[in-house]
Amino acid sequence: MGRGKIEIKRIENSTNRQVTYSKRRNGIFKKAQELTVLCDAKVSLIMFSSTGKFHEFISPNITTKKVYDLYQMALGIDLWNTHYERMQENMRKLKETNNRLRREIRNRMGEDLNGLSYQQLSGLEQNMASAVDRVRERKYHVLKTQTQTYTKKVRNLEQINGNLLLDYETKYEDPQYGLVDNEGVYESAMALANGASNLYAFRLHHSHHPNLHHGGGGGGGGGYGPHGLRLA
C-alpha cells in the first residue's frame, strides 16, 4: 500500500518543521552526492534553516567561489559588481533621506527657510502648531499628575496629624496620664501608673488628740506634721 500524498504547505508546528527539514536536507545532500559521483557534476548546495543554521554541500576538488565563477562565466555577468552597485544605490538613498531629515530639523528651528515656497511654509507652520499643541497637552498632563500626587501626600499628612492629635487628647483625658496640682497627689498618681499596691494616705486627726499641740507641732509629736497630719 503506497503512502498518502502530502500537501505541500508550511508546517506550523516548529518542532515538526525542524524534524522534516533535517530529514529532507539529508535526502537532498544524498542526491547531490549521487549527482557528483554518477554524473561528474560540480554541485554547490547551500541551505539555511528557519532557525538560521547553515548547511553546505560542495563537490570534491571544488570550492564555492569556483562555482560562483563558473556561474558568472556561464551567464556573462559579474555578481560582485552587481552587488556593489546595489549597495551604492542603497547608500545614495540613505544619504538623501538623511539630508531631508536634517533639513526638516533646521526648518523647525527657524533656519534655512529661504528656499521654501509659500505652500511649504504654510505646511511647516501647521506642523509646528500641531507640535506645540501636543507639547502643551503633555505639559498640562504632567502638571495635573504632580498636583494630584502632592494633594494626596498633603491629605495623608493631615490624616496622620489628626490621628496623633486624637491620640494625644485621649491620653490627656485619661486619669492615668492626667496632670496633677501638688506633689503628694503627683506621687500618688505616679504610684498608680506604676501599678503600686500601697499608696500614701493622708489622714486628718482631731485637735483633742493628747499628743497634738495647737499651732505647734514641736518635738513631742513624733510622726505628726506641722498641721496635725499623720502619715499612716
Structure description:
The protein has 232 residues and is mainly alpha-helical. The chain has a domain at 14-76: 3-Layer(aba) Sandwich (SRF-like), CATH 3.40.1810. It contains five helices and four strands, in the order H-E-E-H-H-H-H-E-E. It has helices at 14-39, 64-75, 79-108, 118-173, 183-193, and strands at residues 44-48, 54-58, 202-204, 229-231. A two-stranded antiparallel ribbon has the order 1-2. Strands 3-4 form a two-stranded antiparallel sheet. The protein is flat and about 110 Å long. The termini are far apart.
Summarize the structure.
By secondary structure, this protein is mainly α. The protein has helices spanning 14-39, 64-75, 79-108, 118-173, 183-193, and strands at 44-48, 54-58, 202-204, 229-231.
Keywords:
232 residues, SRF-like, two-stranded antiparallel sheet, 5 helices, disordered C terminus
| CATH superfamily membership of the domain at 14-76 | Transcription factor, MADS-box
One letter per element, helices H and strands E, the order comes to: HEEHHHHEE
| Annotated CATH architecture of the domain at 14-76 | 3-Layer(aba) Sandwich
Low-confidence residue ranges: 178-183, 189-232
- Got a strand count? 4
Overall geometry: flat
Overall residue-averaged pLDDT value:
77
Query: Radius of gyration, Cα only, in angstroms?
Result: 52 Å
Share in helix: 55-70%
In terms of structural class, how would the helical and strand content be classed? mainly alpha
Tell me the number of helical segments per DSSP (H or I, 4 or more residues long).
Answer: 5
Strand content: 5-15%
Kindly report the CATH topology of the domain at 14-76. Answer: SRF-like
CATH level 1 name of the domain at 14-76? Alpha Beta
Largest sheet, described in full?
Answer: 2 strands, antiparallel
Task: Tell me the strand order in the biggest sheet.
Answer: 1-2
Terminal Cα separation, in Å?
Answer: 122 Å
